Amino acid sequence: MSPFSLEGQTALVTGANTGIGQAIAIALGRAGAHVICAGRSSCEKTVGMIKSAEALTLDFANPMAAKNLFEARRIDILVNNAGIIRRDDSVDFTEADWDAVMDVNLKAVFFTCQAFAKAALPRGAGRIVNIASLLSFQGGIRVPSYTASKHGVAGVTKILANEWAAKGINVNAVAPGYIETNNTEALRADPERNNAILDRIPAGRWGLPEDIAETVVFLCAPASKYIHGAVLNVDGGWLAR
């Protein structure tokens, strides 16, 4: 079997209804996995683009939404992609916006990983890929809770790798750069902002959702079996600049 094959594996992708999450789900399916496409809104469109897939409603406004999910069936791969963002000056940022972002982006990630591990540790096998951000490394502007949450995702990825690597579970993260999705449409439509971003990217282009998706497939496949605790920036060289 190819070291990049996911045949016989079942993967759960959160936030799989659109954008990067949708691309990840499709790529995992193309590699041979059966994909559970989870989101708070319908993932039926994503499911229709994958050979073997199903939809699941999960809303991580409740960070414990997946607490009992892994007891009912075997899931070999977990991709924590779901996330939200709130923007305001740090001096005006509200507690409600802070808590909402931290609940979805960090608390839900940790407790979903925990629930997955409780089922996977007895088997001695499992893969977790968390979706981090360039703001796992940088500060950003006007997104204090998002920046804190994504720094937290990087830290959680490392501690879980430390605890679970010798027990058969690989825990890693991918930090996307500037990617062509609905969320970045306004930036790309603004000539000044678009040019400033492109000038900073050594690769000279925006990333595609597929660039992130194929990296996730690699981290889920046997080819990456000795990679633990990595936060892999897929950013066209942005952080190297």
Task: Describe the protein.
- This protein has 241 residues and is of the alpha/beta class.
- The chain has one domain (10-232): Rossmann fold (3-Layer(aba) Sandwich), CATH 3.40.50.720.
- Helix content is 39%, strand content 16%.
- The chain contains eight helices and seven strands, in the order E-H-E-H-E-H-E-H-E-H-E-H-H-H-E.
- It has helices at residues 19-30, 44-47, 69-72, 95-120, 144-164, 185-189, 191-200, 209-220, and strands spanning 10-14, 34-39, 53-57, 77-80, 126-131, 169-176, 231-234.
- Helix 1 crosses helix 8 and helix 4 (95-120) runs parallel beside helix 5.
- The protein is globular.
- The model has no long low-confidence stretch (mean pLDDT 97).
**Mean of residue pLDDT?**
97
Helix fraction, binned, reads: 25-40%
Give the count of helical stretches: 8
Amino-to-carboxy terminus distance: 39 Å
List the domain count as a whole number.
Answer: 1
Largest sheet: 7 strands, parallel
Q: Could you give the order of the helices and strands?
A: EHEHEHEHEHEHHHE
As a percent range, the share of strand residues is 15-25%
Quick one: CATH superfamily? NAD(P)-binding Rossmann-like Domain
Structural class: alpha/beta
| CATH class categorisation | Alpha Beta
- Rg, Cα atoms, Å: 17 Å
The assigned CATH architecture is 3-Layer(aba) Sandwich
> Any idea what the shape is?
globular
What is the CATH topology classification name?
Rossmann fold
Order of neighbouring strands in the sheet with most strands = 3-2-1-4-5-6-7
What is the β-strand count?
7
